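Colleagues,

Please find the record for the two-part complex below.
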Amino acid sequence: MPTRDNLPSPWLIGLLPWVLDLLFKTNVMATFLGALLWGLVIVIYFASAQTKDAKLRRPLNVGLLVLSLLWLASWIKRLKDPSSAPELETQAALFILHGTFLVASAGMLLLLLFAALLGVSRENSLKNDTPSHMDRSAAPSLESFFKLCISSLNLAKTFWLLGCVLSLLALAVKISTIRSSWATEFRAWIFDPAVWIVYALGIFLYIADKKWSEDRRRSLFVQFGILACVALVAVGSVIVMETSHQGHFQGEFLR
Amino acid sequence: MSLLQGLFCLTASHKRNTSVENRERLALAPALMDPFLKSREILQPYPKSSFMYLSTCHRVEIYGWGVHPTELAESWCEAARADLSCLKIYREIAALEHFSRVAAGLESEIIGENQIMGQVRSAFRDNMQSALLSSPLTHILQRGLRIARAVRTESRIGEGRENIASLSIQSLGEFFESLADKKFLIVGAGSMALLALEKLRQLKATNITWINRTRATIEAHPYSSFCEIQDFSRLVELVENSDVTILATAATSPILHAASFQEAKKRRTRPRLRVILDLGLPRNAAAEMAECGFYLRNVDDFQNLLEKHDVLQNERVEFAERVLQREISLMVEALELDEIGKFKEEFLRHWKNFSMRALTQISVENSAKLGYDWDRFWAKLGHNMMTKANELGPLEGGQFLQHLSETLVKSLTPDETTPSKIVHLRESKLNKEKSL
């Protein structure tokens, strides 16, 4: 576990939002924004704890602070306006949990894309044609961007896997509660294209991670970028499908 | 000035934006360069010619004397299959100035770096040994080296300067977060490899492997105590497993090819950053290695870093330029004085003969003191003429002495122009007088 004196405990980062949500019934983690911010905060926290490059750690810590404040701001907004928070049924908890993990994973993929773009830019700056007035040594090292990409991808993969497992659990719980029409429910689930995309993306993330091309005609960062783009398009399409189910975009993934 | 009239320099360097590929072509291996420079086609019309070939990471140069530079440049480019536009020709004083600038480190990529003087001296020695370099080029280049030494000493441009090996390792900070935990592989046992090892030692790198074609050379080296020595035959495997490979061999063709890594590529499971620093010229790693999962950097890739580094030394460099100009003008004056010196020497020889003839014509028997005074008189007269010549300056003084010498020669018989003959005549006359 990362231990950095200047960072809060990882438990605080991972659990505090849930605790706040449960205590005050704000359900910020059931919103796209809340889950996305949580995912970003987690990945940035781990990247900042792992990096040895002070030039990257500083902006990461600033990012961590800004994102945490943003999450708190959205929580305070919910706290002041309780009517905006939806009432949750107990059986919906698993759906919320799986949705939160999937959207948090999307936030991590977003960071992967950002880190890949920074990595490509850093790679280009290392080429000889960079103007001499630019101070190349002031930027973080290529390895730090590489590690940021790897951390984002690994965490995104893990969260996506957790999301998938939780979705299965949620389905199982739902079927067990509505025993009469479980076949209909299951059929609806299995033929839902969003479900297919979610599982296909999980498989894609695992396969892509194992099939790195060492052909440096396409740099590692470009490969990371392409992977992130494909994954984000898939996530986007899932969100669009979910929104079409609800009829309008509410910023929440409760069904 | 006549000494410098035959001097020239053919140069292909990074400062003229000659690419590393063209420099590689022009950097003929010693086995090819020596016969090329000694070839009859080049030397036939110029029997007194002389050369010095200098090849470093950033330049390939031929200093020559007594050969037509354009013809040599054409032959060189033809032999190396390089474009003639790669070469710049400096002549006479500009060639000397260029040599002094190179030796002082003012033309180096790291301005003022300390390695160049050693490289120039080494080239000087090697060319002397291979009988390419001879007088008067030796004489001129030695003066150039003296200028370079003065520039370095007075301007102190060499103080605190890094070498290319050291800077290239420093530049790894752009790639890696930390160097202490990285695996390094050093290939070669030359000066660059040793400098790289020294730098890594300073950085407290612990995981260093060192290989060389001749294993015994590195095993006997003191640096082997903090390195793991391996066989050169494991080169590909070691490069594959290292984070940073530093290539610094004197190989004339690449020792690392992409084809050797095809099998290794298939075995890779995780993406990883691997860097190859190629400090050799000719390059030790083929260019396609960059497409083989490695970040490849060669000596031309440190330009940006070095330019920034050089800005910090601008004041010293400006001062060094001023010292160089002053030393060059002093050198030109000295060479002009050398020219008068030749006339002086000639004049003194004839003058001595002339005065000795005069001494033989007086009777020693009459007075030894008279002979002594007579001797002093001629010496004083000669000295006055020399003083007059010095006052007239290098050109007119030389002409004056030349004219005097010619007059003296005319007044002497052919036998008397050789001092030994005069001495013989004088001694025989003295003996004759004594016997009487």
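The longest strand of chain B covers residues 7-13.

Comments are welcome before we finalize the supplementary table.
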